[in-house]
Design brief:
By secondary structure, the protein is mostly helical. The protein has 4 helices and 6 strands; from the N terminus they run H-E-E-H-E-E-E-E-H-H. The protein has a two-stranded antiparallel sheet.
Amino acid sequence: MRRKKMLERALILTVTVFLAVLFPLQSYGGVAGSKHDFSITGSSNFSGTFTGDDDEVCVYCHTPHGALGSQTPLWNKALTFNNGFTMYSSSTMDATVPGQPSTISLLCLSCHDGIGAINAVLNAPGPGGSITATGADQIGDLGPIGDRINIGGGDPAAPGPVDLSNDHPVSIQWAQRGPGFYATPQDPRLVLYNGQTVECTTCHDPHNGTPFNAGEDAFLRMSNQGSAMCLSCHIK
């Protein structure tokens, strides 16, 4: 009996460690009631704007059926693969200037490019369902043109090339051991993808709608108080 219990505990520990490695420090929940909650009763600026969502929270990004493909986490929106992004470039950047955003960052840009409508999902709730927008339907509608919520910086009423040239570069290879960089991020909450690639979600967690400290932005992977998140990667 004692040996059986020891084996059970070892199995539980092994599974726990496996999940911790597979999903490092991810936040579960935290979307309901946050700015990413676009449901009818949600607390975002879009509250009451959409009808036909059956008060669902997750549907604006995820769907269990009819998703985009296996390369995405049951993604419920189309992605833009049209080489229409103006990427960040600098003569002082050690990393290679990226051609276009990778799939990981395109997930974020499917809403934050300032062009994609939030209610434009691949699979709306219910059989033959649809989500109707009766007012503002794009991230860019929340603020003026060039507002930081609208990463693309374009005008939703007259969309053009999506300009990422004044934003932190994404889909770039980590400048490992390059001048001004640590070998790896000093805080394990900052995630590198496909080995060593910096993406939007390296610094941002779309499921964490609560700021770490008063005055900070939500959806960060760690507090940036005193530039702590910046300094976790950059040696300054």
